[in-house]
């Protein structure tokens, strides 16, 4: 596997035995940018053309191109936390990077619930959260957030419920 870099974008290139081509994919962006070449000497040129084409198509569409992320960044934490996390990694038989990655993944997967929980607790007395059903129980208001794609859907359903209207992501 080979990595190519151009204009801040990184691509992974692999050999496809079925098509007998080198196939590359730009990494770290939500959009799909793929390129291929049967000629090893041309694969980098094809990658550059693909990135340039991606940037041009974004400009034509009036869209900001995705920024490429390498997955590497510096984090500054208290020295005691650094030590404790490193000790935890050693106890777990893993690395400090792996522990930080797990913590970030956990935070991202649960951020919506934490933000929603904070909002509801601040705005409704006696709110209770039940992890087993992802439902909030609030006097005269019960919501099921599983069917809501975004927090704004939940917040909109709260307003609709308060106005006694049905919502597709609220249940009576």
Question: Could you walk me through the main structural features you see in this protein, from its secondary elements to its overall organization?
Answer:
With 172 residues, this protein is an alpha+beta fold. The protein is built from 4 helices and 7 strands; from the N terminus they run ββββαααβββα. The protein has helices spanning 43-61, 79-92, 96-123, 151-162; strands at 2-6, 9-16, 21-27, 34-37, 128-130, 135-138, 141-144. The strands form 2 sheets. Strands 1-2-3-4 form a 4-stranded antiparallel sheet, with helices on one face. A hairpin with a 2-residue loop joins β1 and β2. The longest helix is centred in the middle third of the chain and has 28 residues, at 96-123. It is extended, with a radius of gyration of 24 Å. The termini are far apart.
Keywords:
172 residues, alpha+beta, three-stranded antiparallel sheet, 7 strands, disordered C terminus
Q: Enumerate the strands of the largest sheet in spatial order, edge to edge or round the barrel.
A: 1-2-3-4
Tell me the β content: 15-25%
Helix content: 40-55%
- Rg over CA atoms, rounded to whole Å, is 24 Å
Shape category: extended
- Measured between the Cα atoms of the first and last residue, the distance is 54 Å
Count of distinct strands: 7
Number of domains: 2
């Amino acid at each position: 596997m080979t990595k190519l870099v151009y204009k801040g974008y990184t691509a992974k290139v692999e050999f496809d035995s079925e098509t007998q081509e080198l196939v590359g994919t730009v990494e770290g962006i939500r959009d799909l940018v793929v390129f291929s070449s049967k000629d090893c000497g041309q694969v980098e040129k094809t990658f550059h053309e693909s990135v340039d084409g991606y940037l041009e198509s974004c400009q034509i569409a009036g869209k900001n191109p995705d920024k490429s992320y390498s997955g590497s960044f510096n984090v500054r934490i208290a020295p005691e936390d650094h030590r404790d996390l490193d000790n935890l990694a050693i106890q777990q038989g893993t690395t400090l990077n792996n522990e930080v990655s797990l913590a970030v993944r956990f935070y991202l997967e649960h951020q919506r619930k934490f933000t929603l929980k904070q909002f509801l607790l601040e705005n409704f007395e006696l709110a209770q959260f039940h992890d087993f059903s992802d439902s909030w129980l609030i006097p005269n208001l019960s919501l099921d957030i599983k069917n809501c794609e975004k927090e704004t859907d939940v917040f909109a359903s709260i307003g609709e419920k308060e106005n006694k209207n049905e919502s597709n992501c609220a249940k009576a």
